[in-house]
Specification:
Order of helices and strands: EEEEHEHEHEEEEEHEHEEH
Structural class: alpha/beta
CATH superfamily: Ribonuclease Z/Hydroxyacylglutathione hydrolase-like
Oligomer: single chain
Number of strands: 14
Shape: globular
Length: 304
């Protein structure tokens, strides 16, 4: 049995250049943070969203957080990739009746599209991204403010609700890595909040949550910024060679919280060095994004 509670958080590897739309890259990039934690990124060749997916192993079960933006396994072979990673892990750590939980950071289409690939997989539970299903599965009694635990077998995750970006959004803390997984609520990109009061409330709780724990990295599900402060890639970009790291710091999380506080009374898009906050529908800003995307295509900036 692996001791997931001693000498945590462990050191891991985030010295990686993520797939970003270069010619010939595979549909899924797999990176091992450590022997029991994997980060996967969907290629921009299959979806401009290029979401990140997390596979976390415990002694009794693994959890897959999100299933990407593409249904077709011929285009996006998530199931076969996960099956291979689990088979390799079990070869090194033999277990019988090893379970897989397929869950989500939130319920948007670019994070749940591959759910159907796991239909009929033995010893597998696919958690619906609906709010009530999330509440029942994890045992929330006081949604979204409560902090609940989910045990993978000695590797005990802590979860809390962070609706605002999407009603069923959750944050997950993994003491083994020190990761705070924040889905699409905090990441280096465009932070969309249709329910802005809930968004700010969730950020307040996240900042307090992070302050009380040993966080190594704040890990979201996209990269949309460039390395130039305040400059993002346009919506729909298929080639992003100048991306910043995926991982953010607790200081950056607090900066998102503080920025959200500062624009509460101002609907629209608000640009900061490491992220952009969309307070409400922000239709004018979206139109500008689409215009930038069209210009990028016309000028062939999406050619690797």
């Amino acid at each position: 049995m692996i001791d997931f509670a001693a000498a945590v958080p462990v050191a891991g590897d985030l010295d990686v250049r993520w797939s970003h739309g270069a010619r010939g890259e595979p549909p899924i990039q797999v990176h091992a943070y450590d022997l029991h934690t994997y980060l996967l990124r969907q290629s921009k060749a299959t979806s401009y969203e290029a979401p990140f997916i997390y596979l976390i192993f415990g002694n009794e079960r693994a959890i897959l957080l999100d299933t990407g933006a593409t249904k077709d396994p011929a285009v996006f072979p998530l199931r076969s990739t996960v099956d291979r990673l689990i088979a390799d892990w079990l070869a090194a750590n033999p277990r019988e009746d090893y379970e897989l939980v397929v869950a989500h950071t939130h319920g948007h289409g670019d994070h749940v599209a591959g759910d159907g690939q796991f239909d009929g997989r033995p010893l597998t539970t696919v958690v619906s991204p609906a709010v009530e299903a999330v509440r029942q599965f994890y045992g929330f009694n006081d949604w979204p403010a409560e902090v609940v635990s989910f045990d993978l077998g000695g590797r005990v995750l802590e979860l809390t609700g962070i609706p605002g970006h999407q009603p069923a959004a959750i944050a997950i803390y993994d003491p083994w890595t020190g990761f705070l997984l924040t889905g699409d609520t905090v990441y280096p990109g465009r932070l969309y909040a249709l329910d802005f009061p809930a968004f700010v409330e969730g950020l307040e709780r996240l900042a307090d949550f992070a302050a009380a724990r040993q966080i190594t990295h704040v890990m979201g599900c996209h990269i949309e910024m460039t390395r130039t402060p305040g400059r993002d890639y346009p919506l729909g970009a298929l080639y992003q060679p100048d991306e910043p790291p995926l991982q953010m710091t607790v200081a950056q999380l607090v900066a998102v919280r503080d920025a959200a506080r500062s624009v509460t009374a101002r609907p629209g898009a608000h640009t900061f060095d490491d992220f952009i906050i969309f307070n409400g529908p922000s239709r004018a800003a979206v139109v500008r994004q689409l215009a930038r995307s069209a210009w990028r295509r016309l000028t062939r900036q999406d050619a690797p």
